[in-house]
Amino acid sequence: MKFLAPLAAAVAAISVVAIAFAHAEPARVYPGDGAVLNEPPTEVVFEMSQEMARQEGQNDIDVFDEAGNEVTVVAAVIDNADRKMLSVPLPSNLAPGVYTVRWKTLSAEDGDPDSGETTFTYDPSAPPNPGREVLREDLLNPGGSETPAA
Questions:
Q1: pLDDT per residue over 76-121, tens digit each?
Q2: Among the listed residues 39, 21, 45, 14, the one whose alpha carbon sits nearest the alpha carbon of residue 139
Q3: What residues contact 140, with CB distance under 8 A and at least 6 apart?
Q4: Which of 106, 118, 122, 129 minimizes the number of CB atoms within 10 Å of its CB?
Q5: E-only strand ranges, 3-138
Q6: Of 70, 78, 116, which is closest to residue 94 (Cα–Cα)?
Q7: Nearest to residue 103, comparing CAs of 56, 150, 45, 145?
């Protein structure tokens, strides 16, 4: 019976780790969440915590203007060289304003979906601010000791 308490603690610890890494969620985003840009961005790029499954329509980024109109005209793509990277180009005629970026993913590791949103502002006259580009530092290099690339 003495071994049950340590065994239960080990199972609980493993469960917490499994839950923490159960989705392909964003670790980094450009433009950063809440960014203020003086030039319109050419694309939105997410670095996810896990590789994404290649299933049509399951991984995407949609960008909406202040009125709720979608400005993205093509689906996001997973980078062939790094399946943690998801990006979508933006139109070159992006008008100044606040934009909402909605993303969704499907993990290749466990098949779990995830979704969420970030925002950025394009304002040529406002003081620029990169926003929060690193959304989850703990997801950039889980289990490793190397420093992630900037």
A1: 999 999 999 999 999 999 999 999 999 999 999 888 999 999 999 9
A2: 21
A3: 27, 28, 47, 134, 148
A4: 129
A5: 26-33, 35-37, 43-48, 60-64, 77-78, 85-89, 97-106, 113-122, 132-134
A6: 70
A7: 45
